[in-house]
From TrEMBL:
Region entry Disordered, spans: 1-29, 219-241
Keywords: Membrane, Transmembrane, Transmembrane helix
Protein name: DUF3105 domain-containing protein
InterPro entries listed in its UniProt record: DUF3105, TAT_signal
Pfam families documented for this protein: DUF3105
Ranges that cross the membrane: 41-62
Organism of origin: Nocardioides vastitatis
Keyword Transmembrane belongs to the record: yes
Top-level taxonomic group: Bacteria
Length: 241
C-alpha cells in the first residue's frame, strides 16, 4: 500500500501560512449618502437668503409705517400732546380787579401776562385792524378797556394762510397782531379774559367771540377801538415796572 508523502519539514516556532484570500470576506464601508453632505450647504444658503430678505424688507416696512403715521392713516395715530377739549370755554383764564388808570404819555409798563389782559395803560388807544408787527402794549391795553377783541399769534408757528384765516375771523371791533413772547400758537384776549388756542382753526375762537365779543367784561365796552392811533404814530415810550 502506497504511503502519502511526509509533510514538509517545519521549523520550530514558524507560523502557519495565511488562509487563501476570499473577495467576499471583506468589503470597504459604503460611502455616506450625498444628502447628508449637502445638508449644511443648504442650511447656509437658506440662512443667507433670510438675512438678505430681512435687510431689505425691514427698512421698507419701517419707512411705510412712518409714512402712514405722518399722513395720519393706518392703525397708528400720529403722536400728539395732551388732548385739549375745544368744544367749550372751560380753559378761559379770568383776571379781575385790574387797574384802569392811565399812564403818563410816553410811558409803558411790564405786564404780568403775555399778552396782557388789562391794567394801567396809555392815554390813547390803538386803532382796530390787522398788523404784521407787534403793537405797543400800553396802547393795546387801552383798546381792551374799550371792549376790543385781541387775537395774537406766534409768527414762527403759523404760515400766511393760517394768519389770513385768523384775520377772517376777527370781529369789527378787533385787533390781530403777532406776539412772539406768548407760549401758545394763538391766543385770544379781551379785558380780564384770555384763552390759549391750538391754532387758527380752533373752534373756540367763535365761541369766545360769541361769549365776550360784546365787551361785557371791559370797563368801557361801548367805546370801541376805532379812532385810535396807529403804531407808527405812538413814538418812543419809556417802560416802567
Amino acid at each position: 500500500m502506497t504511503q502519502p508523502p511526509p509533510p514538509p519539514h517545519q521549523h520550530a516556532g514558524s507560523l502557519p501560512p495565511p488562509p487563501p484570500f476570499s473577495p467576499g470576506a471583506y468589503a470597504p464601508p459604503p460611502p455616506a449618502p450625498r444628502r447628508r453632505r449637502m445638508l449644511p450647504v443648504v442650511v447656509a444658503v437658506v440662512a443667507a437668503v433670510l438675512v438678505v430678505g430681512l435687510a431689505v424688507l425691514v427698512p421698507l416696512a419701517v419707512s411705510a409705517d412712518h409714512d402712514a403715521v405722518a399722513r395720519g392713516d393706518g392703525d397708528r395715530a400720529a403722536p400728539s400732546g395732551p388732548t385739549v377739549d375745544t368744544s367749550n370755554l372751560s380753559a378761559v383764564e379770568e383776571y379781575d380787579d385790574l387797574a384802569v388808570d392811565h399812564l403818563p404819555a410816553g410811558v409803558s409798563v411790564d405786564y404780568p401776562q403775555s399778552p396782557p389782559v388789562g391794567g394801567r395803560h396809555a392815554p390813547v388807544w390803538l386803532e382796530c385792524g390787522v398788523y404784521d408787527e407787534p403793537v405797543p402794549e400800553a396802547n393795546m391795553v387801552h383798546s381792551l378797556e374799550h371792549g376790543t377783541v385781541w387775537i395774537t399769534y406766534r409768527d414762527d408757528d403759523l404760515d400766511a394762510a393760517e394768519i389770513a384765516a385768523l384775520a377772517g375771523q376777527l370781529p369789527q371791533d378787533g385787533i390781530l397782531s403777532p406776539y412772539p413772547d406768548q407760549e401758545a400758537s394763538v391766543v385770544i384776549t379781551v379785558w380780564g379774559r384770555q384763552l390759549e388756542l391750538t391754532g387758527s382753526d380752533d373752534p373756540r375762537i367763535s365761541l369766545f367771540i360769541g361769549e365776550y365779543g360784546a365787551g361785557d367784561t371791559a370797563p368801557e365796552p361801548l367805546a370801541s377801538c376805532h379812532g385810535g392811533v396807529r403804531p407808527d404814530d405812538v413814538g418812543d415810550t419809556t417802560r416802567i415796572a
